Amino acid sequence: EAQVTQNPRYLITVTGKKLTVTCSQNMNHEYMSWYRQDPGLGLRQIYYSMNVEVTDKGDVPEGYKVSRKEKRNFPLILESPSPNQTSLYFCASSRGASNQPQHFGDGTRLSIL
Amino acid sequence: KQEVTQIPAALSVPEGENLVLNCSFTDSAIYNLQWFRQDPGKGLTSLLLIQSSQREQTSGRLNASLDKSSGRSTLYIAASQPGDSATYLCAVEGNRDDKIIFGKGTRLHILP
Hints:
The complex is a heterodimer of chains A (113) and B (112).
Chain A: E1 4-7, E2 10-13, E3 19-25, E4 31-38, E5 42-51, E6 54-57, E7 65-66, E8 76-78, E9 87-94, E10 103-104, E11 108-112
Parallel strand pairs in A: 2-11
Antiparallel strand pairs in A: 1-3, 3-8, 4-5, 4-9, 5-6, 7-8, 9-10, 9-11
Chain B: E1 4-7, E2 10-14, E3 19-25, E4 30-38, E5 44-51, E6 56-59, E7 62-67, E8 72-77, E9 86-94, E10 100-102, E11 106-111
Parallel strand pairs in B: 2-11
Antiparallel strand pairs in B: 1-3, 3-8, 4-5, 4-9, 6-7, 7-8, 9-10, 9-11
């Protein structure tokens, strides 16, 4: 089954403790992206990647890092999480950079205390 | 900077009615516009993608149109059903930077 898999689905942690949210897709997609979704602000793009070893900042990259060492994986790293990073996070992928529909994961709900 | 607006923020209509959701964007330099559906507690499901060179796309009871020059798109839902209740989001992909910008969505409730 074609899918985008995020882990963990839920996480409660404390300020300053490094964490990684993994994202993996099994569709051989080139384009992958991370979003956060907050009430009243909607979905905002954090980082995206057009292909292996190519990453670019989205609208809200501060406080986040990503890497794209393999085509299927696109982890989101919070080196020193803060409470304002409490949010619902989505990973998405699509075939090619443009004009292909995005496939979304089920989301990761992060709470930073 | 691209801005995407969806009006109304929420909408309730009786079952069986046809309805239109609106999406507007400020920068016409886009590759495409995509409509998504999001159910509570779930991820997003792609409904329709319209390339910048296209005027509309159809899938079943859904029809999406795009007027790039005026920065507008509509999602038309025919013969609405209670199962159509969800939040509908539009997103544009810029052709200057490949960034994807979402609107805040329209929360749709179909009354049985």
